[in-house]
Amino acid sequence: MKAISTSLMLFVVMFALPAFAQSLSPEAKSKVDAITVQLKSWASDPQVVAAVKDHNANPPAEYGGMTNEAWKSLTVLDPKVRAFTKNAVAEFLKSKKVAAVTEAFVSGADGTKVAFLAKTTYWNHKGKPKHDVPMTGKTWIGPVEVDESTGQQQVQVSVPVLDGSKPVGSLVVGLAIAQL
Fold first, then answer.
1. Would you call 43 helix, strand, or coil by DSSP?
2. CA-based nearest residue to 84, from 57, 104, 109
3. What 3-state class would DSSP assign to 22?
4. Which CATH architecture has domain 25-179?
5. Could you tell me what percentage of the chain is helix, strand and coil, using 3-state DSSP and rounding each to the nearest 5?
6. Is 15 helix (H, G, I), strand (E, B) or coil?
7. β-strand 145-146 against 153-163: which pairing, if any?
8. Which of 6, 26, 71, 170 lies at a C-alpha separation of 20 to 30 Å from 50?
9. What is the pLDDT of residues 16-69, one digit of tens each?
10. Domain map of the chain by residue range?
11. Confidence of residue 70 (pLDDT cuts 50, 70, 90)
């Protein structure tokens, strides 16, 4: 009996308590829901949709062999990284950024980057819910966590970039919990 109690307590400490501690308050959830409506309008902007469609049709050849490991080795000053902060979609994201936004990036259908505000931790997010769920046409809201690339406690929200009703990419935005 004691072994079961110890196992149950260990389970609660390891899994249930962190999940509980990492959930959004009702007030924060309401604010995230309101911001999500705005994010959907960002993702449907004609220049964002056009850039994602172009990326999907013509993936940049110079990134053909890029892996997440190789991406991590690049500095923020590397021309391969800076190109994604200097394009039209990156400028659009900058124009929409508010205090609560800690990060924002747009990915093509294959999960690779089209544009971002700042270098992302990963080059490709395919296989992760933040990209895969929007590719089904749905919104994804992640857990509250300390983001590896920003160092801030945040929640990520991702929405599909739609060409009509067809998902062609994803927009992921990190929202600072302290700013909600």
1. helix
2. 104
3. coil
4. 2-Layer Sandwich (3.30)
5. 45, 20, 30
6. helix
7. antiparallel
8. 71
9. 333 334 688 999 999 999 999 999 999 999 999 999 999 999 998 999 899 999
10. 25-179
11. very high
CA dihedral 129, 110, 43, 40 (to 10 degrees): -20
Q: What is the pTM of this model?
A: 0.85
Per-residue pLDDT, 21: 40
Inter-axis angle of helices 46-57 and 88-96, nearest 10? 150
Residue with tokens 């690049």: 74
Q: How far apart are the first and last CA of the chain?
A: 45
CB of 130 within 8 A of CB of 139?
A: no
| Predicted local confidence at residue 106, as pLDDT | 98
Amino acid at 107: S
Higher pLDDT pick, 7 / 112: 112
For tokens 């302290």, the residue is: 178
